[in-house]
Structure formats: structure tokens, C-alpha cells
Sequence to fold (652 residues):
Amino acid sequence: MSDNSLPFDEKYCPSTATISSGQKRKEDWEKSIKNPQEYWSEKAKAIDWFKPFSKVLDDSNPPFYQWFPDGELNISYNALDRHMKGVRKNKLAYIWEGEMGEVKTYTYYQLYREVNKLAKVFKDYGIKKGDRIAVFLPVIPELPITLLATARVGGVHTVVFSGFSAEALADRVNDCGARILVTADGSFRRGKPVGIKDNADRALPNMPNVEKVIVVKRTGQPIQMKEGRDVWYADALASAGANAYVEPESMKSCDPLFILYTSGTTGKPKGVQHGTGGYLVWAYWTLKWAFNPTDEDIYWCVADIGWITGHTYNVYAPLSLGITAFLFEGTPDYPAQDRWWEMIERHGVSILYGTPTAVRMFMKFGEQWATKHDLSSLRLLGSVGEPINPEAWKWYYRVIGKEKLPIIDTWWQTETGGFMISPAAGIELTPLKPGSATLPLPSVNADIFDEKGQSVQPGTKGVVVIKSPWPGMLQTIWKDPERFKQTYFGKFPGLYYSGDFAIRDPDGYFWFLGRADEVLKVAGHRIGTTELESALVAHPAVSEAAVMGKEDAVKGEVPVAFVVLRSGFQPSEELRAELVKHVRVAIGPIATPEAVVFVNKLPKTRSGKIMRRLLKAVLSGAPLGDTSTIEDEGSIEDIKATYNDLRKQLSK
Ligand code: PRX
Fold:
């Protein structure tokens, strides 16, 4: 999308929403920025504190901000125990549907009982405040139960997306030093069981800290259980006793709640660390502001709990608000391409929080799959993970929303803990614009900077920075405070650097334009090009590799690898397939390269830096631009020839 093609002036006012001028939103935002102490001391009352805080924000050691520093609370208490006193006790917390169509429900009380049993198991295993528990599970009810049980005993969870490889699992588990791993025998994908425990088994010999492995029986497929180390989840819970109760630990507001690994531009994935009080307050309020869910809603966030969206908006925000959330294990087009719409109709889902990739996929399938279902239960539609292009936005609005429902496009990141820039149905809705995430939420002091750190004029592209702290912000990178400072507060000293390009239009609306760095967004999944490159050069045939994102009509972008082979290796279809497989094994299927392009040389500057800009231009078909700093002119000819080859390959 070229920047000046953005349809700034197109405004949509869905017919079932009250659209306002934005005055209230503006006032609320101004109040939050002018006096954060007063603003948040009021808002934080929505949470139950064991020990009230006397101070909202300690900013004496930036960027290590401390929210509600002397307050104490427990997040599982806020998600569960506090609902035991009133009408919510017997209300549904979760409706879960598996890939094969089986449905399980949990009231808040039932969830509370399960969490207490698992918390007792953790206690019996000697888990103490601050110990890490790793989670390698598909989206099944045991996943949120594990997170809540961990929080209850004061542990720190780290969820590894169940589609990641054994190597990726071991890297993450070792970095955080987890003592327990909770996993499953497998899960269902397209109607077939796929192994998870077997992947964990490949990683376990390299994870010396893991003392116990708790295994949920999901598929019943045969697996290895190591005597003394591995225990079935059901047996462990039975040993805890049917009426187990574990006193929730009183946690300091800034005690870590979880570590979630995410890709950056250099090195291994970073362990983004979130705390307890600030994170929970942010989770609670952002969901309220953006979607304003009520007791009548059935709310469905489609994200896997392996990612931040699932952490915040499938677990902590909906449960602390006491609403009913729907969880789905599986594939959007299995057994048929109307799976989502069929489930929305059957369960009466009223809030759908989806993704641009899914919308574009449904567009490709054709609208008949959606229109044959009664979707009248829906009242709000959301989007997250990558920019939603205006065409997809309009399809979502017209075909799913029947031009009546607001599209809530939420921009945020693993690091931000929750929504940052988004329409705010819970404050007031301003007119929507297809493709824009609209305006910053309260406390989000966002700006757009040029390379020199100057705020740009409306209509000019730059990078998004956040100029003041907000409660949901990451606390640090696990075990690497220097990297935290450098990565996020080093580029423009003292300001949070998001790594995203955007434009602000004359109404102040933000239009996101993708990453400004070497991070890819493949179907909304965040993948660092360096991780793919390291995986490739670990193969004996590869001497050098450069991975770029190529625009894709459904997935947003896909990775394409340019590879220089070591002497003695010849390009071949077999080697290409082997390298693709190698990356899948090293990282996981989400990182599968769309194409591997063999080149004789990578274009480099005289100082030896790969000219990524040239490779990007080759992929997008854009003019190569200035090539005067290139070390070897000949490599351009090589690339151009390869480009033509590549085009043929990709169009196959
Ligand atoms: O590039 C932005 C994109 O996703 C990145 C964050 O990825 P992750 O940490 O995996 O979190 C994903 C879920 C919040 C951002 O830097 N992104 C996320 N939401 C949007 C988006 N880009 C444009 N519009 C969005 N709504």
C-alpha cells in the first residue's frame, strides 16, 4: 500500500452504534495524561487489593517504572475468588469447543475448583513464589487453569505456543529456568491427532531444570511417560483431593506474573516480563474501553493463548471482568469453511475479536459461507495482529457486520500488555475509518517520529513512540535489563520505541503500515528474520542467508529466504525442500519459508552489511534505487536474474 493511497476521508458510522464527536474520549485522555496518579488511583479500584497501594507510580528509576508499588494482590483471586460472593459464581466463565466439535463449559465456581486443585499440586511439588512454570498446551481449558493456578501460588508462567519446535521450546524453558512443564499428549488439527508430548520429549533432555512434567490427556495417542518425572494431569489433580483449597499468595504489584517470549531484530527471542498489578489494571480497563463487554455477552477472542492476545484477552481481562468467554481449539476451516460462522450461530457469540488474516481467508472462501448463518447475535467485531487493509475491513463490516456493527481494530504488542490505539466503544465511538485503528486510549501518549526524533506532520510516515509510561507496559526483558533499555528506550532516549511505522491523518487517527524493523508478521505471528537466518545457516549446506518478508494476499506477508550455498553444494529442488523442512523443524510450521532462492552472493555494502533494502525491492518488484554503496555491482545482475527465476517459482 503506498502511503498516499490511504482513504483518510472515508468515514463509517455503523447503524447500531452511537457515534459521538470524541469530546468525552478527548477529555478522558487529557485527564489521564495530565494527572496519571489521580486517574489510575480511581481506576485501580476496579481490582481487589489485599493491601491497598499508597502510590500509583514510582518513576524514580526510568524506564523501570513501578505501578502501584506497595499494593498487594493476587490475580487468580481477581479472576475467580471475588466472583464467588455474588451472582457470577454460577455464571459461565468459559464455553470451550474442541476441534472435533465437543463442548465443555466451566462456571466460575467450577473453574475456581479446578484451579485450586492444580495449585495444590504445584504446592505439593514445592513451587514457591517466583518459581517458573512452563506451559506447552493447545487451547484446551487446562491452559487457562494452569495459568491461574500458577498465579495463585505466586509462580511465573511462560507459555510456549504449542506449534513451536522442540528446539524453540528448550530455548525458552532454559532461558527462564522453569521447574515444571505442563503439556498434553497432543491436540487435534484438521480432525487428526498431532503430537505435542513427543516434541516436549525431544526437548526434555536439554531442559535440565524441569523436575516434573504434567501431561493432559487430550487425544489419547500413545506417548512415553518417564517414571518419576511425568505424571498425568488427571492423576495429579486427583491426588490434590476434590475439595482442595489453596490460599492465594499475596503478591507485590510489581512481582512478575509471566514471561512471554517474542521475536526482536537481533539474537534469540526476548523474554518479555509482565508484572501483576499494573498489567491486571490495564487488561481490565482496556477490554472495558474497547469492547465494553457485559453480563449478556458471549465474547470470543480467536487468539491462541500461546500469544499475548490470548493471555490478556482470553484469560486475565475477561475473567477479571467476570464475563463469559468462548474458547476454540481448532482450525477455522475444518470441517468446513463456515466453522466460525456456524459456531457463532450455535453459541450465540456477541463479540468476535478476530484477525485480518482470517478475514482475508474468509473473503477468499466467499461470502456465502457466512451469509448462510444467522449472525444476528453479534454486536461488535474486533481485529488484531497486523494492519487490516481497507478492503478486508470493508468486507468484515459489510458481510459479517451487515453495516451495523463497529469494527474495533486494536493496535498493540506483546510488550504493551494490552490495547494501546483502538476505537473505544466503552468510552464513546467516534466515526470509524476502514484501515485505521483510530485514536490512542487513555494514558497512551503516542506520537509519530522521523529518524531524527522529531514529531512528523499529519500525513507523513514515521515510527510510533510512546512518550509516557502506562500500567500495562512490560517491566523488563527477563534476565536482561540492558537489552530492555537498549531495545525500547535507546533509540529515542527515554521514550518507548514500538518498531512500527504509521501515519496520523488530519483527524489524529493512526494508520499502521507494518514494522519498521526486521520483524515479520506472518498471518499475524511475529517472527524475527534473524531467527530464520540463524536456523538456515545452521544447515551444513548454507553459508549465508537473508530472509525478507514478501507481501501476501492472505497472510499479510510470508518469509522468503535468499541463500548462498557452501562450496560443494549445488542448488536443487531437493535441497530447497530440505531447507524448508529444516526451518520447520528448527522453529515450527509458522516460520515455513514461502520460497528459498539460491543466489551466488548477497548484495552487501563495502562495509559488509547486507543491503536488505535491495532484496526487499527485488521481492516487491519496486525499482532498486540507489546502488552506489554496493560492494560488488555484479551481485545486482545476479539478483535480477534470480528475481525473474523467483517470480516464476512463486507463481507456480
Ligand atoms: O506490527 C504491529 C502488529 O503486531 C506487532 C506486535 O506483535 P505481537 O507482539 O505478536 O502482538 C500481537 C498482538 C497484539 C505490532 O508491533 N500489530 C498488532 N496489532 C495491530 C498491528 N498492526 C496494525 N494494526 C493492528 N491492529
Notes: The radius of gyration is 24 Å. Residues 634-651 form the longest helix (18 residues). The mean pLDDT is 95.
